[in-house]
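Notebook p. 47: complex prediction with glutamic acid.
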Amino acid sequence: MPSSPTVTGRFAPSPSGPLHAGSLIAAIGSYLSARSQGGHWLLRLEDVDGGRVRPGAADTILRQLEALALDWDGPVQTQAARKNIYQDALKALREKGLAYPCACTRQEIRSFGARYPGTCRQGLAAGRQPRSWRLRVPDVLPPWEDRFHGRQDTPAPQGDPVLLRADGYFAYVLACVVDDGVQGVSEVVRGGDLLIITGMQRHLQSALALPHPQYGHLPLLYNADGSKLSKSADSPPWAGDPSQAWEETLRLLGWTTPAGLQGASAVEWRDWALMRMAERQPLYRIAATGPHQQTALSWPS
Ligand code: GLU
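Predicted complex, structure tokens below:
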């Protein structure tokens, strides 16, 4: 009888700052999902955008994950040194006519608002110089199933995304899809902010003949003022007690945690959570936290 393929999950933070309470949800969630199925869990530091990398952040992230007892498989992958792989992917897309040069300047792009209107889709006007490369995304994308949120059929919200930026950096969208493919990632469990671009990333996978991982999007955290927690926007890093971090994260995922575990070590929390999942505790129940991933935090300053 053929054995079922191994699950490979991953956590892919960008080293733009230390992990905060919101990133812990993606870290712990993706870990529990992969490990509870006997799968691999990879760690990839998404440093493709050198301009957003903060010195020391990568090291801090590794120490934070260790403190939470989230052990990863194999070497930590980074992106900055893999430009040639992204270059090959872009070349393949160009050859298939799925990527096109864009001459729009920053100022023009700002004037378009949230959605790129496809100005350069049909070719560059005479005298215009290519600045970036974009992916051609159809207006209607095939529906797909999110593991927690069910059927999704949102069109690409920002129009055709940039793959290679005018400043020479490859975009996250391309690097992430290529790396998930190269690393054999079979499931992506990540923050809910990326739910709306997943249809477009799946289109990119199809265009590059890569398999589609299964996707599941977890709740997002907001600051008390309604802004999203973000590493680069100086949200308070998680610097606290690993025991509390586990308890809080599981609670945000809709779990009931036992009083007896308060103050337990990260290893005890991790092993307890894995045991609960073996007993069919769902990783995340939307009903427990509401469908729109909104959880306000009052965050100590
Ligand atoms: N690098 C992204 C971030 O830090 C996550 C990308 C992903 O999980 O696909 O928000």
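Notes: The first helix runs from residue 21 to 36. The pocket of glutamic acid is lined by residues 12-14, 46, 176, 190, 194 (CB under 6 Å).
Next step: compare against the earlier run before touching the bench.
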